[in-house]
Design brief:
This protein is an all-alpha fold. The chain has one domain. It has 18 helices and no strands. Helix 3 crosses helix 11. The longest helix has 26 residues. The termini are far apart. InterPro entries: DUF418 (IPR007349), HGSNAT_cat (IPR012429).
Amino acid sequence: MAAASGLTARIRSRLARLDGRGREPGVDLARGLAVFGMFAAHLLTTLPFDWAHPETWTDLVNGRSSILFATLAGVSLALVTGRTEPLSGTALAWARVRISLRAVCIWVIGYLLILLNTPVLVILPAYAILFLLALPLLRVPPVWLFAVAGLISVTMPFAVHAIDAAGHDGEIAQGVVLLLGWDYPFLLWAAYLIAGLGIGRIAFSRPLTALILATCGAFLAVVGYGIIGAAALLWPADPLWGAVLSSGAHSNGIGEAVGSGGVAIAIIALCALLCRTPVRWIVLPVRAVGAMPLTAYSAQLVAWAILQPPAGAYGSDLAAFRALEPFWPLTIATLVGCTLWTLLVGRGPLEWLIARIAGIGFAASASGSPDAAR
């Protein structure tokens, strides 16, 4: 009886942490959806999207899942640096130290995952760089954050296109691409993180605010995929405008930036609304995944490295692994594993490790600061 009582108390305390004051269940839900969206993009063979054929609808995860992940990174930064009232002074300075240390850890984990040699474009190095780029913006008002995000989304596709057109030939260039995570070019992807930072700086989980955000996101999706995407089709063979205006997944065009950015905003807002209802308990397993996204994402790639067929050509490796139909086994294992870990242990193992490293590094830095000396 004592053991059972102790287990019950442990589970209750872990649930209190997951659903406690200071957490945003809608953000965890959106992160969980982003993780599973990336699972689907990696593990499912998808056909070009066509509204008339439901079997092609899985193509919606391509590109949009990783953009949602990047947008949520900005929301998370806002939540840990004061929410609607940004930190200032010494508190902000040390928050920047902790964020920098977390970024370094994420970059290292990303590089280690790249070394597994799975046919996946690992997002974590770019994710880490985006954290560092956001450091000067932590006290910028949300209206300006949204304005900057919008400006980047319509200008940086030209820069990305020019850099890509110059080519990445040679070992040195390929190494730089790898180290910078250029498959998710930070010049443009900063727009998603900055938009997320703006979302986190407003009371986005309030029903009216969430409805406004969802409406704005839907409007941006229509503009990006409808108007700008249609404009791109006017220059299908044009090496500049056809590429820069594109709304295709992973095109890094203006249409994709505006459209997929809008989708990310709408999903975050809708998840915030959903988690204001009892449904938040029904989706608890997905929220558990969203509470440890780095662990879930990394575990998927480690499992892939262990289970994948013998090495061969890039495309055949991907096709051979997808032929094993790994999506549902890995998805179910992730749901069950993250839920049990959340209820019995708490914070995800990689999340705990990074928090410890950042905390130790912060303590070491603070011990040499003038404030600490006083």
